[in-house]
Amino acid sequence: MLLTLDPARYPLGIKGLITEKDPDVPVVWTKTNFKMLYMNMGHGDKVFTSATQNKLFENGILWLLRQN
Q: Who contacts 43 (Cβ-Cβ below 8 Å, separation ≥6)?
């Protein structure tokens, strides 16, 4: 797991599904033995307006393209 949501910023629809036992909602993770990268972000009217998010996408794509 590389990135989770801040509990204070959960969308209204999932606030009731989060438990104190497992408060993390992963939005970016890898499965390195399969060279997989999952990013659950980039939805809405502010897609690609964050330099930090764009750098994450760029670095993720470069990692996936590496041969080693």
A: none
Domain count, the chain: 1
3-state secondary structure 29-57: EEEHHHCEEEECCCCCCCCCCCHHHHHHH
Which domain range does residue 49 map to? 3-65
- pLDDT category, 21, cuts 50, 70, 90? low
pTM above 0.85, yes or no: no
Nearest to 32 by CA among 55, 65, 64, 54: 64
- Taking the C-alpha atoms of residue 17 and residue 38, their distance in angstroms, rounded to an integer, is 21
What is the dihedral sign for C-alpha 6, 19, 41, 11?
Answer: negative
